[in-house]
Write a structure and sequence with these properties.
Elements lengths: L1 H12 L6 H12 L12 E4 L2 E5 L2 E9 L6 E5 L3 E8 L2 E9 L3 E10 L2 E12 L4 E4 L3 E3 L2 E11 L5 E7 L2 E7 L9 E10 L8 E10 L2 E6 L3 E2 L7 H31 L5
Parallel strand pairs: 2-8
Antiparallel strand pairs: 1-3, 3-6, 4-7, 5-6, 7-8, 9-11, 10-11, 11-14, 12-13, 12-15, 15-16, 15-17
Amino acid sequence: MGSLLLVLLLLLLSPSYPRGGSARRRRSARTQSPGGRSHPPFWVRVSPDFKAVPLGGSLWLNCSSSCPLPEGSSLRTELRRGETLSGPRWVAYQLLDVRAWSSDVHCFVTCAGETRGATARITAYKQPSSVILEPPVLTGSDYTLRCHVTHVFPVRFFVVFLRRGGRVIYSESLERFTGLDLANVTLTYLLPSRPRDSGQPVTCHARLNLDGLVVLSSSSPVTLPVPAWSPASKALASTSIAGCVGIFLVVGALCLRKYLSMQPPA
């Protein structure tokens, strides 16, 4: 009996003998974070993460995650919300009547007590109601070209340019206009007149570029007129023509007189 108790005591003192409390602590260390909760890594995505919509338009945003069992999701935005749809690991949110120039929309998902999020940028724009190029006016030696771009938003992201034929002859960025309201813009340009430009078509264009979204609006073509003669030019031309006619008459009279003098008397 004494020998049996000695063997049991040696087994209990052996380092390799399993202890229940220590095993439980090892299992807990594998499944819990230092704070006492399990936080498996997961990602949150929102799609699209950038969207430009026409002023007053609507869109859908999809918020998804890799969490196997999401505890909840939410959306934080100042935009007007519509319907909400959901499925496994995703929630879709509808945003209505977008009128703010630029808005950040935040999507959040909670998984195993941890909340993570993703952000999308939503912008609104307004294509010009019209692009009108006035008929060119020749003043002195320059054509005056005047282009009107109406009801645009946001103005500072537009570029207005003029084309003669297929070539850009002038371009101007409107980035100096920092207002966030609908606006009308008028661009005036003096084009030096050249004889070969007469009859050439000219057009005006307004281009909006928002992170890859390009919106182009164009005017109807107008034709550069033939330069009109000024009164001084007309007087000079008349004098020149009269002088030429006089010279021809004198030369003709001299030739006739010489011809007659060479004829034998009758």
